[in-house]
């Protein structure tokens, strides 16, 4: 029993780490996903250069107050001006697609359901 409790505790310690995605360039900006240990989902950051300041581009952890919305995917336009991202609610298989303007950080009014 002690071994199981110790193993479980140790596993949680080892699993609690910051994970980094690979920076990818779309248009004139770089984007990278980073998940801190206390976050359920990775935050997507934008950077002007690989050594530039990171700015939050999309934080799926703030899309709902009860963590029921999850980010399913992101896809950028060829020119890097728009980002389509899919979200699902409450573990549903249905994905709602939003389009975000990369420069203004605002979602377009159109949504695909």
UniProtKB/TrEMBL annotation:
One Pfam family named in its UniProt record: Peptidase_S9_N
Name assigned to this protein: Peptidase S9A N-terminal domain-containing protein
GO molecular function, one term: oligopeptidase activity
GO CC terms in record: cytosol
UniProt-listed InterPro entries: Pept_S9A_N (IPR023302), Prolyl_oligopep/macrocyclase (IPR051167)
Segments forming domain Peptidase S9A N-terminal: 10-112
PANTHER family, per the entry: PROLYL ENDOPEPTIDASE
Protein's organism: Euroglyphus maynei (Mayne's house dust mite)
């Amino acid at each position: 029993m002690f071994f199981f409790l110790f193993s479980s505790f140790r596993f949680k310690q080892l699993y609690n780490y910051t994970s980094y995605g690979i920076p990818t360039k779309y248009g004139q900006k770089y984007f990278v996903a980073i998940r801190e240990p206390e976050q359920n989902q990775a935050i997507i950051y934008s950077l002007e250069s690989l050594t530039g300041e990171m700015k939050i581009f999309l934080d799926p952890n703030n899309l709902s107050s009860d963590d029921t919305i999850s980010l399913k995917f992101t896809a950028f336009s060829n020119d890097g001006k728009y980002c389509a991202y899919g979200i699902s609610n409450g573990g549903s298989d249905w994905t709602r697609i939003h389009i975000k303007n990369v420069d203004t950080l605002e979602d377009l009014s159109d949504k695909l359901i």
